[in-house]
Amino acid sequence: MSTTLSTVPHVLCAEEPLLPVVGGDLQVPLLDGSTVRFANLDYAATAPALASVAERVARVLPYSGSVHRGAGLPSQVSSALYEAARRSIGAALGARADDLVVFTRNTTDATNLLASVVPIGSGDVLTLDLEHHANLLPWHRAGDGHRCVAHADTVDGTFERLEAELRRRPVALLALTGASNVTGELLPIRRAVALAHAHGARVFVDAAQLAPHRAIDLAAIGADYLAFSGHKLYAPYGSGVLVGRRDWLDAAEPYLAGGGAVREVTTTAVEWTTGPARHEAGTPNLVGAVAIAAAFEALGALQPEARETHEEALRQRVLDGLAAIDGVDALRIWEGDGEAIGVVAFAVDGYAPGHVGAYLSAEHGIGVRDGRFCAHPLLARFGRTAGALRASFGVGSRAEDADRLVEALRRLVEEGPRHAYCDGPAGWVPEQDPRDLAAWTGLELGLDTAPATRSPCGNG
Ligand code: PMP
User: Fold this and answer.
1) Gap from CA of 433 to ligand 1 centroid (Å)
2) Which of 176, 220, 227, 351 has CA 20 to 30 A from 186's CA?
3) Across residues 216-237, what is the average pLDDT?
């Protein structure tokens, strides 16, 4: 019998982080006055920086100068570093020789950029209703029209619906998530590419969740465009990337008008440049670019499939733990047990998601996400218009984080919270919270009032 991930005893798996991250041993105060190591189960929102990324940034900062805009040594070094980062990111993603790697602020920015270059009259843009808003809303502006296809209960059924839409009217672009930000489930991207290309449509992969968790070979997958955010890829320094086919990018109006995107300007006319600079007007984010390149370097040095194995062990640990608690349900888009990245969405009967999130943080030092995850249509399909909870892992996660979550949820369901919480103007918070975050962190947080005089519930 072959050994599958779920038959590997958990105790052997993911006991330690796969890579060191900044803040991996962060201590946080709890309501009862004790302190605990923070269990970061919110990698899908923003992941901590890899220690190696922070070190690379620190090495580069003394040379930080204006990219492509200066004769001084720092400016020359910065320009070289920025372009070297572009090349190494392209190589890490398996980009084709003619693809452009354009730096953006994040995935949202990258998707908006791509939406601005889809040629008018080339056909519709197709998405599924399970997408993050960043891969729904920008398409309202693109091409001839945006068609949002309701996913079916199975992957096969979902592909049948996509195929029917591709046959119905010309499609310029099929824009799909590589991995759901809600459930972590993976879409078979190669299958989507084969289907779309057979109907003359290009494919955009929203890899905001996929890129941090899986090696990507763009040329092998055959997708035409792909985007992701540095802050989810252990490089939280304000950059993202859009990579893909040059022709649409070179032919479209620049995404931003300004310096760096031009060849020649007169008071009445402009000749725009081509290549990535066309869409990167303004002084670029050197540190953001270098950080993403450093993150790919560190992730690429891991054993193949190390990330999958690590995260799958943690995901199964949480899923098994949740399955043993009455009234806690994990959410899935598709029937069956298809592959997923390290993300688990769930709901707790009788508790608002925000209430659970506040309890996990204040009583157990666990950070999860609650709400609708910028995926309102999908949460509506789940019948969870009040939202749900999401635990997500990455290379800095360890088994103890998963176990702490399961134990905290078991206690919530069996014993209830120890403290009272209210749904105040800023969301769910403890009614009485003596903790002083500014004093704890030593950072100027600009909070209006000291804990003693705060009224988080908005009732005083
Ligand atoms: N797509 C997916 C699948 C995401 O998870 C996110 C972020 N949650 C985004 C797009 C948007 O990323 P950003 O906020 O970095 O632009």
Assistant:
1) 32
2) 351
3) 98
